[in-house]
Amino acid sequence: MKYTGPVFGILFFLFAFFFLQYTSEYHFYIQEQNQLFQNNGDYVCMKLQAPGGVSAVLAEYLVQFFYLSYMGAFLTAVLLTVTGLLTRSIVKALAPEGEWPGVYLLPSVMLLFIHFSFNYFVAGTVAYIWMLLFFRINLFFPKNSVQVIGGLISAVLLFWIGGAITFLFTGCWLFYLILYRIRPFYSIVGYGLLAIGLLFLSTWHTWAGEYRFIFLPDAYFQSRLVPEPVIYFSWVVFPVILFLAFLLRNRKKSSLREDWWMLIPQVLLIAGVLVWGIPTYIDKNSAMIKKLDYFSRTQQWDRILESCEGPLTNYLYIALANRALAEKGELADRIFEYDQKGVHGLIVAANKTHLVSVLLSDLYYTIGDVAFARQMAFEANLSALGDHNPRMIQRLVETNLIFGAYPVAEKYIYLLEQTKAYKSWATQHRRFLYSDEAVAADPVLGRKRLGIPENYIMPVDGYDVNLQRLVKPAMINKNPVEYLGCLYLLLGDMMRFKELIETYYGTDVLPTLPRSFQEAVITLSETDPDYWQTYDIPEAVMERFMVYKKQVLANKSNPGALPGLLRRSFGDTYWYYFMFKLN
Question: Do 100 and 91 touch, CB atoms closer than 8 A?
Fold first, then answer.
């Protein structure tokens, strides 16, 4: 039985690692993008000045490695396992006889649930570990005034190291002193005065905008949001564990058989809590967008398209699929192979949220609207959960280089050079600073600089106006004209679509019509086959339309079944979208 604790620790670590890797791989990549840890003294010193600064620095240092495969799950599993082992050490110090994994694993399990939240700071778990460590150290002291004084000193140190976790430590240590009748009167007075003093200092120095950020775990959650109750669970179970350990302190040594029988209900307890908590708190709703966002950031366009096959229920998914097509140069050819739901799946409406601002910055950059891409990157960077968003800092470097705003780009390059993951990328982009020739020679930056319209002004009368300004008859980038054409098709605005192709067909930007444009030409001039020849519509497309039309006429008497009958053979055509999906 003496090996039960380490065995349960190893088993819990393996469970946590494989479970988190399987369910939350892309969650960790998103977490890494919500901070920019800078490996320099000024940044670290700035963080250390605030209460909880040590935990914040350690957590950010760990999270910066989440961009590596498996590291997010591995490091989180390590933190949760250390939490369990420290809790076990405390329980064993108070109740030496017996093993109670069902007790000391509870804080780890409760912390596991809150780690599913996109808005939780890992600093909360690091601070919790510090709290357990200080609690365990103070148990080594004699049970007299030394423990009272040691707890007071520990609380002051922990306030700087962990922040709000100090008030959990103070309350639990005072609870321990009262339970064991260790100078109870002096303890109540001393710890009460300490709590009042720390609260006063926090408000005096405006270390927190609200009281809940001073003495509640809310301090480790996105400040603009109210956390879910699960964030309090780990704080609630620890005093319960102390009370259970107090009740078990005089338990006699039992036989091996009795110990094993005691383990069974504890294992069932932990299993039951996991079975209840995982489906309740795991973030299923955002799992898809986190995965697609990672594929977008790493330019895995085919994996985005594979993930978006079949029915889609979210405009963001559709927008990312359309962006992947555009990056592959296939947007106007294949757009209707995917479940289009109107114009909002092509150009997502801005709503000031971090995730949408990131997506829009990527989207506009793909289109070639560098100004909008820079604006959205700036908004996304400001709304990041921590300090900056590395990907958006990269975008600000790129867009400012394209515009020739070299001092601004240099500032962002310097930020990235202070990191481990992005230092190499930043150093490579230094060669573009103050060199128009280097920017012009780059296949990406140079092409996007050529696409910037003269006398550019942000339009306020519709995004199609902005796209029109980006379309130039003699340019390499076809994305603006393809997005504009697809915009008209999704709106069903055939007159403006006709004007677009009549203006640009045969130019460098639209030398031939892509497939969806060909199908749209047939739609807008169904009774005029001679007009089709103007745009060299292939014979195969015309024959396919004839088959489509024949099937429509043959099933005219059964209009309710018509969409289902045609979807299999023609669901990837503009004809099908125009007839059945256009609102």
Answer: yes
Other CB atoms within 10 A of residue 199 CB: 15
Please, what's the b/e burial string for 283-310 (b: 16 or more CB within 10 A of its CB; e: otherwise)?
eeeeebbbbbbbbbbeeebebbbebbee
Whole-angstrom distance, CA of residue 377 vs CA of residue 360: 8
Side-chain half-sphere of 59: how many Cα atoms within 13 Å?
A: 27
Sign of CA dihedral 303, 365, 323, 357: positive
* Phi-psi label, residue 143: left if phi above 0, alpha if psi -120 to 50, beta otherwise: beta
Each as own residue / partner, the long-range contacts of residues 246-250 (CB below 8 Å, 24 or more positions apart, any chain) are 246/94, 246/95, 246/179, 246/180, 248/94, 248/95, 248/97, 248/98, 248/100, 249/94, 249/95
Measuring CA to CA, which residue among 229, 46, 164 is closest to residue 60?
46
Q: Is 221 helix (H, G, I), strand (E, B) or coil?
A: strand
CA distance 482 to 330: 9
Rg over alpha carbons for the chain, rounded to the nearest Å, is: 31
Question: Distance (Å, rounded) from C-alpha 453 to C-alpha 451?
Answer: 6
Give the integer Cα–Cα distance in Å for 176 and 416.
47
Under DSSP, the state recorded for 182 is S
**CA 67 – CA 76 distance, rounded (Å):** 13
DSSP H helix total and E strand total for the chain: 32, 0
- At 443, the amino acid letter reads P
Query: What separation in angstroms does the CA of 20 have from each of 16, 452, 500?
Result: 6, 44, 50
Q: Nearest to residue 259, comparing CAs of 81, 101, 93? A: 101
Q: Under 8 Å CB-to-CB from 34, ≥6 apart: which residues?
A: 354, 384, 385, 386, 389
Instruction: Indicate the residue type of 113.
Output: F
What is the token pair recorded at 133? 């460590």
CB atoms near residue 267 (< 10 Å): 13
Q: How many Cβ atoms from other residues are within 10 Å of residue 280's Cβ?
A: 11
Separation CA 572–CA 478 (nearest Å): 22
Largest Cα separation within the chain, whole Å, is: 101
CA 255, 260, 262, 263: dihedral to nearest 10 degrees? 150
Per-residue pLDDT of the chain (583 residues; tens, 9 = 90+): 567 778 888 999 999 999 999 999 999 999 999 999 998 888 999 889 888 899 999 999 999 999 999 999 999 999 999 999 999 999 999 988 877 888 889 999 999 999 999 889 999 999 999 999 999 999 998 888 888 888 889 888 998 899 889 889 998 998 998 888 888 777 788 778 777 777 767 666 566 667 677 788 988 998 888 888 999 999 999 999 999 999 888 877 766 677 777 788 888 888 999 999 999 998 888 899 999 999 999 999 999 999 999 999 899 999 999 999 999 999 999 999 999 998 989 988 888 888 899 999 999 999 988 988 999 999 999 888 888 899 999 999 999 999 999 999 999 999 999 999 999 999 999 999 999 999 999 999 998 888 887 655 555 555 677 788 788 765 677 899 999 999 999 999 999 999 999 999 998 889 999 999 999 999 998 888 888 888 999 999 999 999 999 998 888 878 788 888 889 899 999 999 999 988 7
